[in-house]
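Please annotate the following for my students:
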Amino acid sequence: MRLLSRQLLPLVLACVQLAPAGAAEALSEYQVKAAFLYNFVKFVEWPATVAEQRGSIVMCVIGKDPFGDALTNVVEGKKVNGRGIEIRKITEVAAAASCHVLFISGSENARLPEITKAVRVWSVLTVGEYPKFTQQGGIVNFLMDGHRVRFQINARAAVDAGLKISSKLMELSVPDSKGKS
C-alpha cells in the first residue's frame, strides 16, 4: 500500500492547481501533462505480447508537438518496471505500431477517427486534449479546469485496445459529460 501511495503521489500532485503565471516555481501546463504521461505508464497494463517486449517504453507524439522539451525532461533517465523511456515524434499513423503511448496533438483532430481505429489493434494508449476526444475513440483526454490539469478515461476504448487501466487511476479521472469515466 505504501508503494502504491508513493507511485500515485506524483500523479495526484500533477492534479493540483498550477501556480499563477510568472511564479518562479510555476509548472507549465505541458510540464504537468508530461508528468501525467509518464505516470500513466505506471498504471496501465499492456497485453503480454506487448509487455514482454524488451527495450524501451515508447512514447510518441503525432502532429504538432506542444510539449517542447517538457516531455523529454520529465522522462530523462527514468525507468518504469526496469525499462527506459524513449520519446518519438511521428507523422505517419503506421509509425504508431511501435508506440506504447501516443499523444495525438490537436493538429490531428481531423484524422482522429483514422488514428484511433488504426492504433486500437496495436494496444496503444491514446492521449489527447481536445473536446470529445474520448467520445471519438481516444482513451485518455486532458482537460483544463481553471488552472488545473485533469483527465477523463474512456474505459471501453481501453478494453477494446487490450489495455488494463488501474482502478486507482480510474478513481483520479473525472467523469465525461455522460457521467462515465
Notes: The radius of gyration is 15 Å. Helices lie at 2-15, 29-42, 48-51, 70-75, 112-120, 155-160, 167-172. The chain has a mean pLDDT of 85. The chain has one domain: 2-172.
